[in-house]
Amino acid sequence: MHTISVSDQSRPLRLREVSLDHPWRWLAAGWLDMCSEPALSYFYGAVFAALGTLMLVGLEQWGMAWLILPLAFGFALVGPMAAVGLYEISRRLDAGEAVGLGAALGAVRRNPGQIALVGMFLVVALLVWVRLAMLEFMLFFGSQPPTLDHLLGAVLSPEGVPFLLVGMASGAVMAVLTFAMTAIAVPLLVDRPDCDAVTAMLTSLETVRRNFRPMMLWAFLAGSAALVGVGLFFVGLVVVLPLLGHATWHAYRDLVESQK
Hints:
DUF2189 domain-containing protein, single chain, DUF2189, mainly alpha, membrane, transmembrane helix, transmembrane, globular
């Protein structure tokens, strides 16, 4: 077991090493939390599904349909912030505390400044990814990207294959780096108000390093589920987002030893 100090004022964090079957356990535990609090869980999912649908319609109306693909992928990057309230629901279920909408919506107040810093990091990562996507579209499709009606055909055409390859490669690099820095950072900050953002992200990085194979499996499962949710015109997020949010909490609890 590896130990990493959080700060001079708090107990050290003790990280666990887990096996490849644990990501499936996290999903199972997340599903149980959804079943325990279905109304709150599905409410969270429905809110972000509605926001995603509005974004889809807005981009089409503004003639920026080419941004749909990179922003859909980018949702997976900023997903940890979208699930803050779900972490609090799972935390309260674990602790036997009362669960309510007010507590879930107020989860950020447990560590507002540090959670906001991680949020800023994720927003910067999203902006970098969107900028890369813009450059790739201009490189392969010129200064006039395809409209929504022609987007899928253009991307899947022979001319679009190099674009897909470059996009998937750059997206994979962004996804792995962002995931490693934030896999358990936000649940850690929700659980431990004395923890700071830098320590939380470094702890997440160390956790991924020490559990590389299980965490890469978890990244694949979570990323695939998120893409399915987004791919179903965001409607799938009604189920996918709360499932992944609750499961991420259980991943954190499994990987980081509880405070005594």
